[in-house]
Amino acid sequence: MSKSRWLVVALICSLVAMPTISNAQAPDSTKEQAQDFVRDVLRGLLGPNWNLFAHGGFATDDRFLLQRAVNTIDGERALKSSTGFNIGGGAGVDILLRMGLRASYTFKSSDLNFRTNNGNGSDALNIDDVGTVKSHTAALEVMRYMLPSRAAISPYGTLGIQGTWWVLDEKSTLVTSSGASTPFSGGLLFSFGVQFKATDKWSGRLESTLSGGHNPFTGNKSFRAFSGPTIDEPTSIGRTDFRLAGVYHFGKPKMPTVTPPVARK
Questions:
Q1: Were both Cys, which of 47, 76, 131, 260 would link to 117 (CB 3.0–4.6 Å)?
Q2: d(Cα 95, Cα 101) in Å, to the nearest integer?
């Protein structure tokens, strides 16, 4: 990933890992705090705190590989995917006032293109639509809200793991999936976004997701490209997804409890 991506990842990790202020100021013992935490989590899992969501948007991938062009003028060209679409859905649960879990599935599809990479702005080696790369991603994430999860507007960050299965539809002899046997990659997943409440039952989410995994064009059983000798073939690539989601909540919004002040003697 680029340096800017790692900065975003660091901010998200600090957001997800940040303890609640109430826990930091609670006078209870460590044992009592642990018992209360387990009780609250179980109450959240067993209570009407679940939600279903569907999302859609667009996504971009890093460069798959760089090759030297053959049977033409000297130069280099990179295999890249165009901006594609994504669609999916999943289920989640708010286990605490500002923390939740979610599991999701996402399908993505985008066209593959060769792009001139000579550094002079030329497009002489461009080749459009040589294939369509598709992916199926399953993810499990921990969500951390900055405000209560059912607040009118609540920014959030997530940290999770994901697994991706790649599929290639060839439209040119320059790429092939022969022998690939549906490459699989797994890795970390980071998201940040904002959830906005529409009604007591419906919310919307606008989010950006950063993920990384094995390059499907690298390895013994990977997809192949035949534009020319390979110069650079990264073992892993990054992906950025931008999504708009609709969320349906079961049950009533969870309201924070207020402890009455203790009267002084």
A1: 76
A2: 7
């090759």: which residue's tokens?
A: 67
Q: Which helix (H) or strand (E) holds 192?
A: strand 184-197
Chunked mean pLDDT (size 10), the chain, 265 residues: 50 50 51 57 64 97 91 82 96 91 97 90 89 96 93 96 94 85 89 94 96 90 89 93 96 56 57
Cβ-proximal residues to 5 (8 Å cutoff; 6+ apart), any chain = 210, 238
CATH of the domain at 137: 2.40.160.20
Helix (H) or strand (E) holding 186: strand 184-197
Q: What is the pLDDT of residue 20?
A: 44
Rounded Cα distance between 44 and 171, Å, is 49
Maximum distance among all Cα pairs of the chain, rounded to whole angstroms: 92
Matching residue, tokens 């690939």: 180
Tokens of 69: 């062009």
Structural domain contains residue 165? yes
Count of domains observed in the chain: 1
Q: Is residue 263 part of a domain?
A: no
Task: Give the pLDDT confidence score for residue 22 in this predicted structure.
Answer: 43
Concatenated DSSP letters of 252-263: PPPPPP-PPPPP
Task: Please say whether the dihedral angle defined by the alpha carbons of residues 65, 69, 74 and 78, taken in this order, is positive or negative.
Answer: negative
Q: Which domain holds residue 130?
A: 3-19+51-249
